[in-house]
Write a structure and sequence with these properties.
Elements (H helix, E strand, L loop, with lengths): L1 H10 L4 E4 L17 H8 L6 E4 L9 H9 L3 E6 L7 H7 L5 H14 L4 E8 L6 H14 L3 E6 L17 H24 L5 E9 L4 E4 L10 E4 L8 E9 L3 E6 L3
Parallel strand pairs: 1-2, 2-3, 3-4, 4-5, 8-10
Antiparallel strand pairs: 6-7, 6-9, 7-8, 9-10
Length: 261
């Protein structure tokens, strides 16, 4: 059914698909016979879609087979969204995430070794019950060490039906917001350096918006609405792919002009 939908979308001119689930990496475990995300990636790669990308890959379930399938796929964006949730073993254990920080680092290392140009997006939660100064510092240090390409930060709030609903919400809202701000400031520095390193490169961009003088698009390293954008100093057709020479950058944007062919 997924392949049928993908093929219909391609026939209708769709250029980009996103594979999204609460945990994409456990795709197919409930089917009979079992199938796996790596097999789905290989089949989607044959549909003719220009770009497709993976969101919400659970780090504990990101197997070598999936990573190999990602590396082999020609049209899969060199991008993955892996919510690590935290960087403290104590908090990860409380969340029952299935991996400690050493395990997370190993998965990311394998991913980056197998797909050298991949960009990794993650999300984390600050203010989870039991997060003291030590646990927050461990999270901060992990983000600083792993240099994620994209980062979303959420403050913890009690949610009915979760494991944490029985825990005392013992971090004040003020402290949650302060910690969120510290992580976002850190990520802004990381993003600024990474974006500046792209100045002078010619990069393929998909155009999302266009006006009489300018356009806005994205690289394969950016998902719509949540990641970086590319400002193009020229009107371009929406949905088209163009090669853009990057001329300047800031924390969240690349700015450039169409490359001379």
């Amino acid at each position: 059914s997924i392949l049928w939908e993908a093929e219909k979308l391609v026939d209708n001119g769709v250029k980009e698909l996103m594979i999204i689930a609460q945990d994409t990496t456990s795709y197919g475990w409930d089917l009979e016979p079992k199938v796996f995300l790596g097999e789905l990636i290989a089949e989607l790669d044959k549909t003719g879609i220009d770009w497709f990308r993976i969101h919400y890959a659970h780090p504990a379930h990101l197997s070598r087979k999936i990573i190999r399938a990602m590396a082999d796929a020609k049209n899969l964006c060199k991008y993955i969204d892996i919510p690590i949730q935290h960087g403290s073993d104590k908090i990860l254990s409380s969340m029952r995430r299935g991996l400690n920080t050493a395990g997370i680092k190993k998965r990311l290392q394998l991913l980056r070794e197998s797909i050298p140009d991949i960009r990794v997006r993650t999300t984390v939660i600050v203010g989870y019950p039991g997060e003291g100064e030590r646990e927050f510092k461990e999270l901060y240090d992990l983000i600083e060490e792993m240099q994620f390409d994209r980062l979303g930060v959420f403050t913890y709030s009690e949610e009915e039906g979760t494991l944490a609903e029985n825990y005392k919400d013992d971090v004040s809202n003020e402290l949650k917001e302060e910690r969120k701000g510290l992580l976002l400031d850190l990520q802004a520095e990381i993003s600024f350096e990474k974006n500046n390193s792209m100045i002078g490169q010619i990069i393929k961009v998909i155009i999302d918006k266009s006006s009489q003088k300018n356009s806005v698009g994205r690289t394969e390293f950016d998902s719509p609405d949540v990641d970086n954008i590319v400002h193009v100093k020229a009107p371009m057709d929406i949905g088209s792919f163009v090669n853009i020479k990057i001329e300047s950058a800031n924390e969240f944007e690349l700015i450039g002009s169409p490359a001379n062919n």
